[in-house]
Amino acid sequence: MKIVGLSGSVVGSKTRTAMNYTIKKVNEKYPEHEVNLLDLADYDIQFSDGRNYLEYEGDTGYITKTIMDADAIIIGTPIFQASIPGTLKNIFDLLPVNAFRDKVVGMVVTAGSAKHYLIAEQQLKPILSYMKAQMVQTYVFIEEMDFYRKEIVNDDVLLRIDRLAEDMVVLSKTFQEIREAKEAEYDF
């Protein structure tokens, strides 16, 4: 199984820190899976111009193709100005409408205030649903106070990250088994 972590911002350190913890946990618990972390801060991504994702080259082509090849995706996003960052929205715009069909998607959200917990519910989940994602229903929400010197210091957050990793893999395997059983019904 291919699992991709996507750190959806080009600034700040908290989302990357949270994604590092999450990817580390997935690797520890499920070393048999191929796990890749894409941090948008490390790439030069073009703005979406309506082309098919296969037509993009360079970093943009690499990011879109890696996401499309994944079986499961963990999206990490900060909340800026009560919204997801434009860099993350651009990634969604680069992909086709059905980009997340047959993919399980989990979320790790970092924010400066507890008041921003609904951004994932009101902005991110509708986008992922529209793009046909099978979502892990509970996401990890991490506040500013849960970090200290680029480390997560809240044990409850670490437990939720652990649970997200487990839920992602179990849900992915379950949906894969359902798809295989359905395909086996056809006689061609």
Set out the fold topology.
Blueprint: E1 2-7, H1 14-29, E2 34-39, H2 58-69, E3 72-78, H3 86-94, E4 104-111, H4 118-130, E5 134-135, E6 140-143, E7 147-148, E8 151-152, H5 155-184
Parallel strand pairs: 1-2, 1-3, 3-4, 4-5, 4-6
Antiparallel strand pairs: 7-8
Helix pairs in contact: 1-5
Protein model, in words:
- By secondary structure, this protein is of the alpha/beta class.
- It has one domain (2-184): 3-Layer(aba) Sandwich (Rossmann fold).
- The chain contains five helices and eight strands; from the N terminus they run βαβαβαβαββββα.
- It has helices at 14-29, 58-69, 86-94, 118-130, 155-184, and strands at 2-7, 34-39, 72-78, 104-111, 134-135, 140-143, 147-148, 151-152.
- The strands form two sheets. Strands 1, 2, 3, 4, 5 and 6 form a six-stranded parallel sheet that branches. A two-stranded antiparallel ribbon has the order 7-8.
- Helix 3 (86-94) links the parallel strand 3 (72-78) and strand 4.
Annotation keywords:
Rossmann fold, two-stranded antiparallel ribbon, 8 strands, 43% helix
Structural class: alpha/beta
Q: What would the principal axes of the Cα set say about the shape? A: globular
User: How do the helices and strands follow one another from N- to C-terminus?
Assistant: EHEHEHEHEEEEH
At the first level of CATH, the class is Alpha Beta
C-alpha Rg, in Å?
16 Å
Number of helices: 5
- Mean pLDDT across all residues, rounded? 95
CATH topology: Rossmann fold
First and last CA, distance: 25 Å
Helix content: 40-55%
Tally of DSSP β-strands: 8
Give the low-pLDDT segments.
none
Largest sheet: 6 strands, parallel
- Please tell me the total number of domains: 1
Please tell me the CATH architecture by its name: 3-Layer(aba) Sandwich
Beta-strand content bin: 15-25%
The CATH superfamily appears as: Flavodoxin domain
